[in-house]
Amino acid sequence: MSADRLPSYSVAELNTAIGSLLERGFAPRFLLEATVSRPQLKKGHLWLTLTDGSASISGVVWASKLAQLSYQPKDGDGVTVVGKLNFWAARASLTVQALDIRPSLSTVLRDFERVRQVLEQEGVIDPSRLRPLPSQPASIAVLTSVPSSALADMLRTAAERWPLTQLIVVPIPVQGSVAPTIINTLEALANRTAELGLQALVLARGGGSREDLAVFDNEALCRLLANYPIPVVTGLGHEDDLTVADLVADHRAATPTAAIVALLPDREAERQGLTQRQSRLKDTLLGRILRERQRLQDRAVALQQQSPREKIRRKRQELIQKHQLLKALSPERWLKRGLALISNKAGDPISGLESVKIGDQLNIRMSDGSLEARVDQIQPSAPNTTS
Amino acid sequence: MSKRQVHQEHRDRIEAWRKDAEGLSYEEAMQALDLLLAELQSDSVPLADLQQKVLHGEVYLSRCQTLLDSVEQSIVELDPTTLKAANDA
Fold first, then answer.
1. Number of domains present in the structure of chain A
2. Within this chain, do residues A142 and A178 fall inside the same structural domain, yes or no?
3. Looking at residue A47, what DSSP letter applies?
4. What phi, psi does A200 have (nearest 5°)?
5. What backbone phi and psi angles, to 5 degrees, belong to A171?
6. pLDDT at A95
7. What pLDDT digit, counting tens, does each position of A197-245 carry?
8. Assigned domain for A379 exists
9. What is the mean pLDDT of residues A301-314?
């Protein structure tokens, strides 16, 4: 290879050539997984070093972009950067310009654990602080992004379950400095709960990644929710996602739709309850009339028992009973069994030999008639030797 | 008082109950109905008032049913900064 076939540049030309090569030959946008090192704010721009331990590259978030980011990277944070290459020809310096920068899952979970620990130690996260939800709230606030499928789902579920509750929808941002905005909105709303007649607050955000929910681990936001003047229901992300906001809320629903289900009664169940009350109302009336009728009948019976005719009937009944008793006790019973009744001429009953002498006329009465007899002989019984 | 006048008075009373009930929320109407049911079930209502009480209960019941059948939900969107109504959805 001879020297005159080699390309020849001035420094400026070389740098420009590298710049144009990079522009043509490199992806205009890329994702970069890295750890943030030494972030520094200079004139509103955030300068940082992106590293993976063995290699590093400098990065920048321009001030205009920084204001839109929901997350401010700290030293040591794992991040995912949506970036593009910036090449400055004058110094041939290469920097990753961050168009978006998000915490990695490990960073989000580390923050979650830290805030959870702090709030648990302070007793801000405490199951005994949970308040019951209103049973049929007249009005509730729904904080969520607008428009969003989460809001559409919540509105549909609310309309199906309980259209009687007024929904006050307050949009919350998903981009930019999300936490301060949500906190400001929540604070302003807290001062107006009575005026708006609010009985509960729903804080909802549809699916997405756990990293998207990082704002709901914000310490100040969670403290505010824990002391909110009305019960708070969270419906954040997917079923498995757990944020600190969920832990301080009075009720944690798995999804935005579930939050509405937890808060609003079911119209069909209420309808059944009404039908039951309707039959109770009817049954009460019929039951009462039946009981009154029975009471009346009891009194009629009591009254009847006090009538003179009834009294005579009862006396007559008593007489009949006594007559039967008398009959049962009369000597006829004995006569029928073969015994006889002996009396003297005067009709006095003879019960032993001492009232009889020979020649007396006696009358012997049996069951079917009587006969006259005269005493011819008297024989006293031999004394009982066994006694 | 003629039979006709009695009927008119009866109708007027039910109408007055209905107007009162229209001012009640679902929960309030349901509470009123439950109170009335408890009173009726305790047999403390004089027989002469029984029919009236049941009719009054039916007015509350009807209020609850009307509210349950409503389909329009009131949705108000507030501006997150001013908290003033952005639009009535």
1. 4
2. yes
3. E
4. -165, 160
5. -65, 140
6. 94
7. 999 999 999 888 888 888 999 999 999 999 999 999 999 998 889 999 9
8. no
9. 85
User: What is residue A3's predicted lDDT score, i.e. its pLDDT?
Assistant: 59
* A164 contacts in chain B (CB < 8 Å): 25-26, 67-68, 70, 73
From B54, B75, B83, residue closest to A167, measured CB to CB: B75
A296 at the B interface (CB within 8 A)?
no
Whole-number Cα distances in Å, A42 to A38, A62, A63, A87, A298 = 12, 10, 9, 19, 100
Looking at the structure, do residues A342 and A287 belong to the same domain, yes or no? Answer: no
Q: Is residue A324 part of a domain?
A: no
Distance from CA of A34 to the nearest CA of B (A): 35
Residues A294 and A258 in one domain: no
Higher per-residue pLDDT: A321 or B88: A321
Between the CA of residue A71 and those of A40, A177, A213, what are the distances in Å? 15, 7, 11
Q: Would you say the pTM of this structure is higher than 0.80?
A: no
- Domain presence at residue A362: yes
With H, G, I as helix, E, B as strand and everything else as coil, classify residue A97: strand
Residue A238 lies in a domain: yes
Q: Is A106 in the B-facing interface, judged by CB distances under 8 Å?
A: no
Q: Which amino acid is at A215?
A: V
Which residues of chain A does B81 touch, with a Cβ-Cβ cutoff of 8 Å?
184-185, 188
Q: Which domain holds residue A304?
A: 269-315
* Residue pLDDT, tens place only, B24-83: 989 899 999 999 999 988 888 888 888 889 999 999 999 999 988 887 888 999 998 888
Strands A93-103 and A139-144: unpaired
Same domain, A204 and A225: yes
Largest Cα–Cα distance of chain A, in whole Å? 195
A277 reaches B (C-beta below 8 A): yes
Share of chain A above pLDDT 90, in %: 63
Please report residues of B whose CB lies closer than 8 A to that of A166: 73-76
Identify whether residues A277 and A349 lie together within a single domain: no
Q: For chain B, positions 1-60, list CB contacts with chain A under 8 A.
A: 25-27, 33-34, 37, 40-41, 43, 45, 47, 50-51, 54, 57-58
Looking up residue A83, the CATH number of its domain turns out to be: 2.40.50.140
Query: Are A253 and A157 in a shared domain?
Result: yes
ipTM of the complex: 0.80
Give the nearest partner residue to B67 out of A164, A167, A189, using CB atoms.
A164
pLDDT at position A387, please?
Answer: 44
Is B76–A292 a contact, with Cβ atoms under 8 angstroms apart?
no
E-strand stretches of chain B: 75-78, 85-88
For residue A170, which residues of chain B lie inside 8 Å, CB to CB?
77-78, 80, 83
Q: Are residues A257 and A276 in the same domain?
A: no
Question: Mind listing the pLDDT tens digit for each residue in A287-297?
Answer: 888 988 999 99
Taking residues A102-130, what's their average pLDDT?
93
